[in-house]
Design brief:
Layout (H helix, E strand, L loop, with lengths): L50 H7 E7 L6 E5 L2 E5 L21 H5 L1
Antiparallel strand pairs: 1-2, 2-3
């Protein structure tokens, strides 16, 4: 159990993933309970954790789906899907780098 403060912003970043994809292509193990069942659907971010809090949520479980595929990482919230999706959409490969800036005053309002 932890107590954290949250900053509420109208929008954290653009949709992630930027393009929806079919989940069966990942061939996820049946015993995995995901933190977000709709991680494959382009949508707004629900919550952004700072680095310290994020690393405190990590558990020991880790499962590699293979070269060019994401890694499954166990967290206190359930399993998360992390990494490249180059093997999922070979026709329309999209590489995403997300960088968002907020003015100091906006963060303190």
């Amino acid at each position: 159990k932890t107590n954290e403060s949250f900053l509420v912003l109208e929008k954290i970043t653009s949709d992630i993933p930027s393009v929806s994809f079919d989940r069966p292509e990942l061939n996820l193990p049946n015993n995995i309970v995901l933190a977000d069942d709709n991680f494959n659907v382009a949508n707004e971010i629900d919550m952004l954790l700072d680095g310290k809090v994020f690393f405190e949520t990590l558990c020991k479980g880790r499962f590699k789906l293979g070269t060019g595929w994401p890694i499954l990482q166990e967290t206190l919230f359930g399993w998360i899907v992390v990494g490249p999706l180059t093997a999922v959409n070979r026709e329309n490969q999209i590489k995403e780098s997300v960088c968002n800036l907020a003015a100091y005053q906006e963060l303190n309002d």
